[in-house]
Amino acid sequence: MKSLAFEVFVLLLTCTYATKEAVKKSKKPKPSVPQIDCDIKAGKIINPEFIAKCPAGCQDTKYHVYGTDIYASFSSLCGAAIHSGVVDNSGGKILVRKVAGQSGYKGSYANGIRSLSLPRWRESFIIAEGKHKKGVTYPTTLEYSSSKGSTVKAAETTRVYQKATVVSPVTQPTTLAQETTPISTEPTSSTLKPAPPTAPSITIGKTTTPKLQAVIHRTRNIGLRTTAAYATHRKILRVNTGETDAWKPELGPFQAGFGPKDELNTRSLEPVSQGDPKCKIDLSFLIDGSWSIGKRRFQIQKQFLKTMVQALDVGPAGPLLGIVQYGDDPTTEFNLKTHTNSRDLKAAIEKITQKGGLSNVGRALSFVNKNFFSDANGNRGGAANVAVVMVDGWPTDRVEESSRLARESGINIFFITIEGAAESEKQNVVEPNFVDKAVCRRNGFYSLNVPSWFGLQKVARPLAKRVCDTHRLACSKTCLNSADVGFVIDGSSSVGTGNFRTVLQFVANISKEFEVSDTDTRVGAVQYTYEQRLEFGFDQHRTKSDLLSAIKRVNYWSGGTSTGAAIRYALERLFEKSKPNKRKLMIVITDGRSYDDVRIPALAAHRKGVITYAIGITWAAQDELEVMASDPDKDHAFFVDEFDNLYTFVPQIIQNICTEFNAQPRN
């Protein structure tokens, strides 16, 4: 009995050992995770779902991110991962899944990353923690698209042309929206017609369109025998339509019986412009739909809009355009993100029908101010807001108050008045001089009067030039994007190295609040002791990241305290190079009483229009701060007893700068 028990025990031990050995052998090696760089965009990677590892240091403004939660594939993968909170700036593993393109992407600020808004994009992705799911195998190497931006591998491209999709006897046209989507390789019919291994290209004008090759092969199912037959029987002609050049097909005899809708849409294969980057504006046209305009003039108005669309070169990188029609009440015909190219816009304009009613322009401006320029409607943070109001005759309500509120929101209002009131009709005008009361500046730049509807087309190009002149769009200027800010920094011996770094952090914290670029706010800095030194001028650092790096590199000088001489030096070396259309802000930071007189230099700064803020620390003299500061000194002079408490003044200083800016008259 004991012998049997022992044998059973030995057998159990043997089985247990064998099982453990088998488990060890069956254990799969830990899957490797491919590494990606900070600047890799999701659209560059072909794989629909994958795990990747982000390096450290991707929290940088140069790695652009578009959207929130769901990101456009044009975004940096690692930047989006930090924005979503999946990883931090130290990097880590992320799980990426491609999803369909969205009609709009909303920008936001999260985890140190500012994501941008985008009207729409062809592909999106979502980010999750980089954990392997059970039963799912993720690629250990990632497949990247070619340098030309194609999202289809070479082998797949050949396969696309070898299989034709048979849907019906009528071939569906290929549209621009399909350009980035590979043609389906799955047959829907048992009848497949082989294609030659190499698909010849067709040249339209000077442009070869690879996408057209696939369309040619797909049309074999409706009677085309060879690509040569296509070239023989279907000529591509260039036709001048009067507004723009379009491609129109001439039908061959083999296509008898086909209706217009069955024609191959060759025009849809034209490349879509990304828009004029020199004219990045968000534009709303307020068109007159009142009964007074009549059907014929309403059609002239629509033709004018189509001419404007062509002149502006609409696209995601340039101007975007939406239309509001007003009568008794305003109606949005389409917003900024509905149509993002000239072709689609002109087709949409043609479909607009007249709504009738009165010419309530004031009500329309209020509607645009409250509803049109929103993130949900495609408004982009970095683009100027412009509203062009078209009026037949004169408004039937008041515009002054609604225009003022719109201007204060940063909307640049242009008025196009056509066939204004005759002398005998002026008593019917509800609000005399309504144009001057509505526009941003009473200098003729924001208003155009057209004596006759038949002369409206002549103002299309002048108007396009004006709305694109972003340097003159006064009402798009805000307290954060319209100044030259000069810091005058005390580098005297009493400050000390540690406290000087604290002062520089204070300078950086204020600078971060502004929109920094060559056309927005610019920042310069002077350090002083007994002597003065220009650390950097207004024209040296054109991005916020470059500016903040320059502030960190400023070296502590040490010496005496001659604040008066420093103000004089800043006026001569820094503010003399300020742009005429910029607000001039000087922020003087000092920790003690000056060895020289500050009154005369401060008065000279005030007379030159330089708004001066005086920041005193520890031993600074209150009377000197008040002399240096602009009036009222309670809004421009600040005192703090410790260097470490400087940061507490940042919000108040920015608020005062903006309050003062918004209080300035616009006309």
Question: DSSP strand (E) fraction?
Answer: 15-25%
Query: Please, how many helices?
Result: 18
What is the strand arrangement across the widest sheet?
Answer: 14-13-12-15-16-17
Number of separate strands: 23
Query: Regions with pLDDT < 50 over 5+ consecutive residues?
Result: 147-270
Distance between the termini: 111 Å
Helical content stands at 25-40%
Q: Characterize the quaternary organization of these chains.
A: single chain
Shape: flat
Radius of gyration from the alpha-carbon trace, in angstroms: 33 Å
Question: What do the pLDDT scores average to?
Answer: 79
| SSE class | alpha/beta
Main sheet overview: 6 strands, mixed
Give a verbal description of the structure.
Helix content is 28%, strand content 19%. The protein is flat. α14 (563-573) packs parallel to α15 (599-607). It contains 18 helices and 23 strands. It is of the alpha/beta class.
What does the secondary structure layout of this molecule look like, with pairings?
Blueprint lengths: L1 H25 L22 E6 L12 E2 L1 E3 L4 H8 L7 E9 L8 E2 L2 E2 L8 E7 L24 H9 L40 E2 L2 E2 L1 H9 L8 H7 L1 E6 L4 E6 L30 E8 L5 H19 L7 E7 L4 E4 L7 H9 L10 H12 L11 E9 L7 H9 L2 E8 L15 H5 L8 E4 L9 H8 L15 E8 L6 H16 L9 E7 L3 E5 L7 H9 L10 H11 L9 E8 L8 H9 L2 E8 L4 H7 L4 H4 E4 L9 H13 L5
Parallel strand pairs: 12-13, 12-15, 15-16, 16-17, 18-19, 18-21, 21-22, 22-23
Antiparallel strand pairs: 1-4, 2-3, 3-7, 4-7, 5-6, 8-9, 10-11, 13-14, 19-20
Helix pairs in contact: 6-7, 6-11, 8-9, 12-13, 14-15
Short description:
By secondary structure, this protein is α/β, with parallel strands linked by helices.
